[in-house]
Design goal:
The complex is a heterodimer of chains A (276) and B (307). Chain A has 276 residues and is mainly α. Chain A is built from 13 helices and no strands. Chain A folds into two domains: 40 residues; 216 residues, Orthogonal Bundle (MetI-like fold). In chain A, helix 4 crosses helix 6 and helix 6 packs across helix 13. In chain B, strands 1-2 form a two-stranded antiparallel sheet. Chain B is an all-alpha fold. In chain B, a hairpin with a 2-residue loop joins strand 1 and strand 2. The two termini of chain B are 31 Å apart. Chain B has eleven helices and two strands; from the N terminus they run H-E-E-H-H-H-H-H-H-H-H-H-H. Helix content of chain B is 71%, strand content 2%. Classes of the chains: A mainly alpha (276), B mainly alpha (307). At the A-B interface, helix 1, helix 3, helix 4, helix 5 and helix 6 of A face helix 1, helix 2, helix 3, helix 4 and helix 5 of B.
C-alpha cells in the first residue's frame, strides 16, 4: 500500500515538473508585461507593482491594433477559402475512387512538407505581377500553400467516416453530388470544419516568412512580424516590456481557443497525422 | 455492387470537377512558383527587376572560373548553414522524440487531472513561434534574464552567461526552445497512439511479473512505432526548413544561420534572386532526398511487422 502511495506521489511530482516546464515561459511573459519602466530589469518571479503601462504603449503608440486586425482578416479569409476548396476536394478523395487518387493525395501531402523558402522567388514574381506587394491579399494567396494541403487531408479523413447509407438514400431521392456535399454532408461535417478551420487559423495567424517578405510598412504587417520588429531607441535597447505585452495580447485568445476546443484539436491533429 | 452503379457513375463525374478548383490553387501557389524558383536559380536575376536576366547555367550552384570555384556548394557560409540546419534538425528531433515519448508515458498514467495536463501540453504548441522566440530571448537575456538570475542565485554559475552570444551556446539555446515548443506535439501524437493499445497485454505482463522497462521496449514501442514514425518525419521536415525561431533569436548571425535564413537573406536582403533561388532549390532537393531515404528506410520495417 505504501509502495503504491509512493509511486503516485512520484508521478505527481513528475507531472508538476513537466507542467512547470511547459507553462513557466508564458507565466514569465505575463509577469514581465506587467512591470512598467525600469522595473522590467529586476528579474523576479512576480511584479512588485503591477501596471498596464506596457499594454497602453503597445496599443496607443504603435499601430498594434491595426496589426491584430490585419492578422484577423488574413487568417479568417484563409480559413474560409481553404475550407471551401477542401470540402469539395475531400468529397472526391474520401467518397469516390478514381485513377491516381492515392498518388494525388500523397502529392498534396508532399506540398505541405515543402520548405516555404523554395517558392519565395516564384511567389515574389506573382505578387509583383498582380501588384500585391505590401498588400494583405498577397498573404491570403500565399498562405494557401500550407493551409490547403492539410485541410484537404484532415477533411478527407473525416469525410471517409460518414456512413455510405446516407449518401445512397440521397441519391435515391435524386440528389446530385453538389446537393449531397452542400446540403447533406456539410451540416454533418460541422464539427470537423470547426476543428480543421481552427488549425488553419492558428497556422495562418502564426506565419512569419511570407508576412515578413511580402509586407513593407507597419500598417500592413501582421502580428508576428510586428512583434519581431518592435524596436526601441537603439538596437541594443529593446523595449522588452512592450514586446512581452504584445506577446501576451496575441497569445491569450489563442490559448483560450485551444483550451476550449482541446479535445477536437487533438482529434484533428491526430486525424491528419496518424491516419495517413 | 457493379462498377457502373448509379452511385459510382454520379460520383466519378463530379470527382474531377470538385477537385479542379483546389488543384488550380495549389498549382498556382506551389507548383508554378517552385518551377520559377528552379528556373531563376539558373539565372542572374535580381529583385530590382525580375523581368530582365541572363541564363547562366549552373553557375549559382557550382562553377570554375579564373582558377576559383564559385556557387553555393563552395560558399563557406552556405555550407555552414547546411551544417547548422543538419545539427539543429538531428538534435532537436531526437530530443523531441525521446522526451515526447517520456511525457506521453507519464501523462498516460491514470492520475486525476489528466485532462488538465493535456491542456498544459497544448500551451507551448499554441504560442506563435515568433512570440516564443521573443519570450525565450528575454528569459535568456544575458544581463536581465530570469535564467541567469536563477542560476546565479542558486550559485550554479560564477557570472552571467551570454546564451545567445557564442555559437555553440546559441545553437543549444535555439534547440532548447524548439524542444520546449514542439515536444508536446510529439507527446500528443504518441499519447493518442498509447490510448488505442489494448489493456489486456499490460495486465498479462503484470501478472507475469515482467519489468515495466522491458514491457515498454518489447510491447509498447513496437505498437506505437507507426505513429512515432509519422511524428518524426513531420518534425524532421519541419526542422529542416526552420526559419522564424532562428531569425528572431539570433538574426542573420552566421554561426546559427539555417538554410532558410541564408536563402531569404540572399534573395531579399541582398536582392540576388539567382543565388537565393539556387540556395532555396538546394534546400528543396535536400529535403526531398531526406524524405525518400526516410520512406525507404521505413518500408522494410512496416513489411516486417505485417508478416
Amino acid at each position: 500500500m505504501s509502495n503504491r502511495l509512493a509511486k503516485t506521489a512520484g508521478l505527481t511530482v513528475l507531472w508538476l515538473l513537466v507542467a512547470c516546464f511547459l507553462l513557466f515561459p508564458f507565466y514569465y511573459a505575463v509577469v514581465s508585461s506587467l512591470r512598467a519602466g525600469s522595473e522590467i530589469f529586476e528579474a523576479s518571479l512576480w511584479p512588485a507593482d503591477p501596471g498596464l503601462a506596457n499594454y497602453r504603449q503597445v496599443m496607443v503608440d504603435q499601430p498594434f491594433a491595426r496589426n491584430i486586425l490585419n492578422s484577423l482578416m488574413v487568417a479568417c479569409a484563409v480559413v474560409v477559402l481553404s475550407l471551401g476548396l477542401a470540402v469539395f476536394a475531400a468529397y472526391s478523395f474520401g467518397r469516390t475512387h478514381f485513377r491516381g487518387r492515392r498518388l494525388l493525395l500523397y502529392t498534396i501531402l508532399g506540398v505541405s512538407m515543402f520548405p516555404q523558402v523554395a517558392v519565395l522567388s516564384g511567389l515574389f514574381e506573382i505578387v509583383r505581377l498582380f501588384g500585391l506587394y505590401n498588400n494583405l491579399l498577397s498573404l491570403i494567396f500565399s498562405y494557401m500553400i500550407f493551409t490547403l494541403p492539410f485541410t484537404v487531408w484532415v477533411m478527407t479523413s473525416f469525410m471517409r467516416e460518414l456512413p455510405v447509407e446516407i449518401e445512397e438514400a440521397a441519391i435515391m431521392d435524386g440528389a446530385g453530388p453538389w446537393t449531397i456535399v452542400t446540403r447533406i454532408f456539410l451540416p454533418l461535417l460541422a464539427p470537423a470544419l470547426v476543428t480543421t478551420g481552427l488549425l488553419a487559423f492558428i497556422a495562418a495567424w502564426n506565419e512569419f516568412l511570407f508576412a515578413l517578405s511580402f509586407t513593407l510598412t507597419n500598417e500592413q504587417r501582421t502580428v508576428p512580424v510586428a512583434i519581431a520588429l518592435i524596436t526601441g531607441a537603439s538596437q541594443f535597447e529593446l523595449p522588452w516590456g512592450n514586446i512581452m505585452a504584445a506577446s501576451v495580447i496575441v497569445t491569450v485568445p489563442l490559448i483560450a481557443l485551444v483550451l476550449v476546443f482541446q479535445r477536437r484539436l487533438v482529434a484533428g491533429l491526430t486525424a491528419g497525422a496518424v491516419k495517413g | 455492387m457493379s462498377a457502373a452503379s448509379p452511385l459510382e457513375r454520379s460520383r466519378g463525374r463530379s470527382a474531377w470537377l470538385f477537385l479542379a478548383p483546389m488543384l488550380l490553387v495549389l498549382a498556382l501557389v506551389a507548383a508554378w512558383p517552385l518551377g520559377r524558383t528552379i528556373w531563376f536559380s539558373l539565372t542572374n536575376a535580381t529583385l530590382v527587376d525580375l523581368s530582365s536576366y541572363d541564363l547562366i547555367g549552373l553557375g549559382n550552384y557550382l562553377a570554375y572560373e579564373d582558377g576559383r570555384w564559385y556557387g553555393i556548394f563552395t560558399d563557406p557560409q552556405w555550407l555552414r548553414a547546411l551544417w547548422n540546419t543538419l545539427v539543429f534538425a538531428a538534435v532537436s528531433v531526437s530530443l523531441e522524440t525521446v522526451l515526447g515519448v517520456m511525457i506521453a508515458l507519464i501523462v498516460n498514467a491514470n492520475l486525476p487531472g489528466r485532462g488538465l495536463m493535456r491542456a498544459a501540453m497544448l500551451v507551448p504548441w499554441a504560442i506563435p513561434t515568433v512570440v516564443s522566440a521573443k519570450i525565450w530571448a528575454w528569459m535568456l537575456n544575458d544581463q536581465f534574464g530570469i535564467v541567469n538570475a536563477m542560476l546565479l542565485s542558486a550559485g550554479l554559475v560564477e557570472g552571467p552567461i551570454a546564451w545567445l552570444g557564442g555559437s555553440d551556446l546559441a545553437m543549444a539555446s535555439i534547440i532548447a526552445v524548439d524542444v520546449w515548443k514542439t515536444t508536446p506535439f510529439v507527446a500528443l501524437l504518441v499519447l493518442a497512439a498509447l490510448q488505442t493499445l489494448p489493456r489486456e497485454i499490460y495486465e498479462a505482463a503484470k501478472v507475469d511479473g515482467i519489468h515495466p522497462v522491458r514491457v515498454f521496449f518489447q510491447v509498447t514501442l513496437p505498437l506505437i512505432r507507426p505513429a512515432l514514425a509519422v511524428a518524426v518525419i513531420f518534425r524532421l521536415l519541419d526542422a529542416m526548413r526552420m526559419f522564424d525561431l532562428v531569425y528572431v533569436m539570433t538574426g542573420s548571425n552566421e554561426e546559427t544561420m539555417t538554410l532558410s535564413v541564408f536563402a531569404r537573406q540572399a534573395l531579399v536582403s541582398f536582392q540576388d534572386v539567382g543565388y537565393g533561388s539556387a540556395a532555396s532549390s538546394g534546400l528543396f532537393l535536400i529535403i526531398a532526398l531526406i524524405t525518400v531515404i526516410y520512406i525507404m528506410a521505413l518500408k522494410p520495417l512496416g513489411e516486417g511487422q505485417k508478416a
